[in-house]
Write a structure and sequence with these properties.
Strand order of the largest sheet: 10-11-17-13-14
Structural class: alpha+beta
Number of helices: 13
Number of strands: 18
Length: 475
Amino acid sequence: MFLLLRYVSFPVISLLNYLPIISRQSPKHANGLTVFFFVIASVFAFEYIQVWDFSRIKKILSGLVVLIVAFVSWLISKQGGFYAIEMGKALQHVSITLILFSAAIAALRLSAGWARYSISKAQYGVLAVLTAELILYIPFGNSNSVFLWARIGLSGLVLACGMLLLNHRYLTAGLTGFVALATYISLIVLPDTGLPVQFELDEPPAYMQWLREHTGSNYRTFGIQPETSSLGAIQDIGVVGPFGLQEFHNLVRLISNEEDLRGYEISTTFTLAGYMNFELEQYTLVKPIFDWIGVRYLILDHGYFNSQQRIDHIPLLSEPELRVAYEDERVTVIESQLVKPRVFFSPYYRVFHDQESILAFFQDDPREILGPPILEKGSIPETIKDSKSGEFPLPKIATELYTANRLRFAFEAPTSGLLVIKDGFYPGWRATIDGKDADVLRVNEKQSCVEMGRGGRRGAKGEIEEFSLNHVSPI
């Protein structure tokens, strides 16, 4: 109840939202923790059923009902009073709640009676109640009221089957179980829309298969919904959730206008379309940054980019450095022909005072990110104190391994410099060059540096472990 009250920002309890870490999460992110606590509470109820005191339980339930009534009354007042309520929908929800609540209390009361002479029978009774409740949460069908009541009926059948078995009514329990199974199958087969017949989780859509083939570990995309990009093992820069690194927040600062940045800071959500709409006019203003971090493809979902919703993608189609690379009934994929590789060697670097000055520099002119990488003053190893002058051929870098926690490259460096890997900087990574340890530093405010010694290397192998987004290796 405590976590549910936080979910709806109940007064006083809503102050929890200002605590560290929790302040970076929307209330809905507490749902998983809430369910976990419910499971623990159920385990205690199951284990200690023999010491239940129903006289105390009645008082607790009465207090809970009073709290819920007070809470619902407060919500109604905040939403504009009873005149703002859709009575049909409200009556449906209230009636469902009362039915489920009454059935659960009756079954638990019966189980408590069994506890006087058979603890195991009482525990199985509680287990039947828990199973009947859990069956409600399986995402059958859709929100149609017919399917809603069918799910409630299924829950009742499961509960009845359990109670009949405990009372040795095996034939009746078997028939009830058969009807429950038939209902279960019907709820999967009958709906025209809704889970679980929406799409095949183990078969990525055609456009994702095409993207995976053309991006590999070298390039990124922008425009796939964060929950689905992993189906095709594609690295899309869209995010949903509170776990982004500070460096990703800095990236959003660089590429977003004030409204989009504020939206990300409030919701920790960053998408091209859907949860949040990133304006493509802004994309053209900061395109050098997108190109530099390796965003090769924009994914325009026809569910959002159409004549009725968004048409800000149309000017992009006439840009000379952009082209339509793929199109089907679901998406249009636009390719940037100026995109830069995710890994490159640079014998040059620039030095700035701190992170903020680097960010301000790129915000003033996004094209500057295409120049030599920038190191923070005070973080430059002694071995690379002097930036090189002159012309040097850029080596070809072969990616031998690119996973979430381990990267390996082979290359020939003509001189000392930086091997830049465009992933997020995070403490704890370690790097080696030809098997020798090297320090990992940050470059361009978001990337990392690995000190690899002076002079050129022929046939060198660089390896980085436990490191993810933008890194650099001084060679």
